Amino acid sequence: MKGSKRIGKISGINGNMVIADFDDYVVQNEVAYILHNEERLKSEVIRVRGNKAELQVFEDTKEIRIGGEVEFTDELLSVELGPGLLGQIVDGLQNPLPQLAEKCGFFLKRGVYLEALPDETKWEFTPSAKAGDRIKAGGKLGFVYEGIFKHSIMAPFGLQGEVEVKKITSKGKYNLKYVIAELTDENGKVHSATMQQIWPVKIPITAYAEKLKPTKPLVTKIRIIDTLMPVALGGTYCVPGPFGSGKTVLQQLISKHAEVDIVIIAACGERAGEVVELLRTFPELKNPRTNRPLIEQTIIICNTSSMPVAARESSVYTAVTMAEYYRQMGLNVLLLADSTSRWAQAMREMSGRLEEIPGEEAFPAYLETRIASFYERAGLVRLHDGDLGSVTIGGAVSPAGGNFEEPVTQATLKVVGAFHGLSNNRANARKYPAIDPLESWSKYGSFIDEGQRNTAHRILKRSQEVEQMMKVVGEEGTALSDFIVYLKGEFMDAVYLQQNAFDEVDAATVSERQKYVFNVIHKIMESGFKFGNKDTARRFFQALRQKFIEWNSIEWESKPFYKKEEEIEISVSEKRAELPEAQHA
Amino acid sequence: MHKVYNRIVQIAGNVVTVEAKDIGYKDLAEISSRTGKSLAQVIRMDGDRIYLQVFAGSRGISTGDKVRFLGHPMRVSFSENLIGRIFNGAGLPRDNGPQLSENMIEIGGPPVNPAKRIIPRRMIRTGIPMIDIFNSLVESQKLPIFSVPGEPYNEVLARIAMQAEVDLIILGGMGLKYDDYLFFRDTLQKHGSLSRSIFFIHTASDPTVECLLVPDISLAVAEQFALGGKRVLVLLTDMTNFCDALKEISITMEQIPSNRGYPGDLYSQLASRYEKAVDFDTAGSITTLAVTTMPGDDVTHPIPDNTGYITEGQFYLRNKSIEPFGSLSRLKQNVNGETRKDHRAVMNRMIQLFADYRSTTEKRSMGFHMSDWDTKLLSYGKTFEEKMMNLSVNIPLEEALDLGWEIMSDNFEPFETGVKSELIEEFWPKKR
User: pLDDT-derived band of residue A2, with 50, 70 and 90 as boundaries?
Assistant: First the structure.
């Protein structure tokens, strides 16, 4: 089909939806360009009716005319994959933003598309396969070094069955588009492989042997998450919360501290200011494990709220495709999408323009399946060569009115493995991270002992019940034993579940320290205490809290750390007593 | 040279449909009817049928009226001559000055490349302690004032306009009561601030749809001045009227409403305006303060709800003062570490003590026993409300911090405040 361009004619415009009449044929989800004077505006075919193709345009449609030309391309909306992705800052269509700024200045001029991976850059390629080897799609041909990572160069993901390596180049520096290998398939057809692959964003990469059940915890170093509602490598979780409850701050903390190889941040329809903070701080912040700037293990996909809506819809797919690409190398990738509600709203806007019959709150009927198939792209996989790789997806959700009953939150809860619900009450009381410890849940296992976790949960629950009761009967009307349970719960919340993001040490807690400290807390929870009255009980826990908070900001395994622990142990043992049954929650 | 059409085939709400050819999307047209001339904008094209949103409303338009297409989208003249002038929502003079037509710029231009933004670092002082101490306003921030009718939100905006250390103020009024418009004009004139202001005013008696243009015009002009290195403060009041106009048009266009009749793209519509707030790398800045009156004082209503997700915090204006709880400036920590070293401590401790005061008043109303500590808190809370929260208080930040120490020392012993001892030593007022 190539060579003869298929051209359509514009017959209708409504917002960012353009209708084009065509003669020949069109392909659902193929990319089409709207030709307007010198500009070429990217769009995607999203519905075909008779000889009318309906296109969602990724740009402002101002001044486009009826009768204008549309050029169909036969290509699905795709991303370029290859070395050089790490450290990039791109928009939802993989346009590198810093390079755009160099070219166009302050504003995002419409219709300007740059190559995501410049072909001029040469990469030092080392072959690992040799002629005659038999491999499958995604099989490793060799590697280049991308920063600290050994970036595998793989056989095209779209290959069917086994192929034989017919020819492979020797070690040397090559451009991305240089053919480094030729592969013969079972029918004798020869496929060429380059260091760069093009992959359609809406189709998952499935070049692996099998998908496994995620079991290994992903350490976020956020105590409340790792201890009470953990996330697994290859798992999924969601963070719904009303505005001001700290979704973005939490996502950013995780992006800095999580123990994964690569973090992909999809800033989808949110504030530009927050992205700017990432852009400006990540090159300076260092990952303590690798001692390299965070930006070298990060890709930022940024389609902020004022950027075109259709590109917002595609930005999450762009992000997850890149995550799958690095997973294929046997790496653990974390994808943080902030916020999936904006993505859902983008679908709603388009659905409205298509005049589809609306579902709840005017979201399209296919909202649930779209959300489900997005989260299903996460997973732990065994690759053909036996290596394991994973994509973990964490999605922020911004429920309208802060109400978790709304469609996007509900559809998301059905498909994720962990739920970190943020609460306004906790945020207003400055209890951060504002994850509600009782409402939230996780289906994954933690590195903390199950029995200890259950005790903690029980005490928190009972503590909250006593607190509710006290609001009615007052402190005077509460039994001392109940009051002590209440204080225990408050204490654990203050010193363990809450974390000071501004304190260098307290901001991130490694798993060994979590186990160690939680053990101490568990002992306090299980202990009985003898107090003369409520005031002495309160003062005891207040003082203990102060010590613990100081302990939290002391470096792990340092001398002062153990000294403080001793101090804590002494003051606890002073008041410890045989456990009266009632203090046991 | 401009094409003129006179086949209006449909008039519904404030949208008319005309049959025409070779028209650009979002282009402007001028409709001449018995009630005068009005601008209209293309909002949808279906073959030859062109749907126009008529800014002055469709009342009195006949099917035989002339529609002249101007061949370009909405534009506004930009030059230094704008300063000190007052215009209406369509950019025409409301004062007696001349109409401006040089250097026309497009409104609703493309978004700023995030790579060209910088992290905001400069505080804007307002003289209102509840803002300066507790939720500092930062250059390039976008903040709404959530309020209800009857509260003095326009007075607050006017005060900030008079006192803010910026180069230029642009006031965008939407559905403004005529009295309020006169209030803004006279107050700024009295304080000599009119000479560094530009007004784009749509009053309640003007056609509803015209208010849709106000934020775009105001921000397009602000953007040009900011690119020229100016620090611009944009005041918008009241964004709820803007959203209601959006709702009206979308219902007329038979769009499926999402929530309480508002269009599904309300978030994107608001975001594209609020996100114009910017601190340019190597140029000026735009800071936006916008009043949003909450229908039924309900923050979960789609307008305040969507706004809150877009803006960098919010101020609640209730009972004629800025409410310390719920009000939030997300950017305050960018600036309040560099003002005076006791700033953060005073901010944190005074708010925590005030929170304790609030729960004590609750306890009191339920008839529980008041301890000595409770009595201290009650006295503290009362002074705080009178001396700090009262909107008539107008003092610079440093004086406000001193006032904070005075209020604390009048009611508490130093150790009861929980402030670090080195700060107590330096700042705790010495009793005579």
Answer: very low
**A/B interface, count of CB pairs below 8 Å:** 173
For chain A, how many residues are written? 585
Token pair for A209: 């042997």
pLDDT tens digits, residue range B237-275? 999 999 999 999 999 888 888 888 999 899 999 999 999
Whole-number average pLDDT of chain A: 93
- Residue tagged 């994107």 (tokens): B268
Both A425 and A502 in one domain: the answer is no
The answer as to whether A204 is a domain residue is no
Closest residue of A to B256, CA-based? Answer: A352
Tally the C-alpha atoms within 13 A of residue B251's C-alpha that lie toward its C-beta: 12
A526 within a domain of the structure (yes/no)? yes
**Number of structural domains, chain A?**
4
Beta carbons of B267 and A306 less than 8 Å apart: no
What does the alpha-carbon distance between residue B255 and residue A348 come to, in Å, rounded to a whole number? 12
Q: List the domain range (segments joined by +) for residue A56.
A: 6-75
A203 domain residue, yes or no: no
- Give residue A1's pLDDT band: very low, low, confident or very high (50, 70, 90): very low
User: What CATH code is carried by the domain that includes residue A164?
Assistant: 2.40.50.100
Note whether A266 and A375 are same-domain residues. yes
Question: Mean pLDDT, to the nearest integer, of A186-192?
Answer: 93
Closest by CA to B8, choosing from B38, B49, B55, is B49
Q: Write the residue in A62, A65, A106 that is nearest to B116 by C-beta.
A: A106
Q: How many CA atoms lie within 13 Å of A188's alpha carbon, on the beta-carbon side?
A: 0
CATH architecture of B4-73: Beta Barrel (2.40)
What would the mean pLDDT of A174-179 be, rounded to a whole number? 95
User: Are A419 and A454 found together in one domain?
Assistant: no
Residues from chain B that touch A358, judged by Cβ atoms under 8 A, are: 256
User: How far from the centroid of its chain's Cα atoms is residue B223's Cα?
Assistant: 16
Q: pLDDT tens, A374-427?
A: 999 999 999 999 999 999 999 999 998 889 999 999 999 999 999 999 998 898
**Closest Cα in chain A, distance from residue B236 (Å):** 18
Residues in Cβ contact with A311 at an 8 Å cutoff, skipping those fewer than 6 apart: A58, A91, A92, A93, A303
Length of chain B in terms of residues written: 432
Report d(CA B96, CA B109) in Å as an integer. Answer: 29
* Contact flag B24-A269 (C-beta cutoff 8 Å): no
State yes or no: pLDDT of B173 exceeds 80.
yes
> Who among A60, A349, A363 is closest to B265 (CB)?
A349
Task: Show which of A395, A420, A442 is a domain's final residue.
Answer: A442
Q: Which residue type is seen at B278?
A: V
Residues near A509 by beta carbon (within 8 Å), at least 6 away in sequence: A221, A222, A223, A226, A499, A517, A556
Residue boundaries of the structural domains of chain B: 4-73, 76-335, 343-427
Q: Is the ipTM of this complex over 0.85?
A: yes
pLDDT at res. B363: 85
Q: Are A319 and A330 in contact (CB under 8 A)?
A: no
How crowded is the C-beta side of B130, counted as CA atoms within 13 Å?
27
pLDDT tier, B1 (very low <50, low <70, confident <90, very high otherwise):
low
CB contact under 8 Å between B305 and A105, yes or no, is no
DSSP string over A146-194 = ETTEEEEEE--TT--S-EEEEEEPPSEEEETTS--EEEEETTS-EEEE-
Q: Residue A505 maps to which CATH number?
A: 1.10.1140.10
Contact, B354 vs B324, CB < 8 A? yes
Largest CA distance in chain A: 91
CATH number of B76-335: 3.40.50.12240
Q: Kindly report the CATH number assigned to the domain that includes residue A19.
A: 2.40.10.170
Domain shared by A168 and A139, yes or no: yes
| A179 close to A151: Cβ distance less than 8 angstroms | no
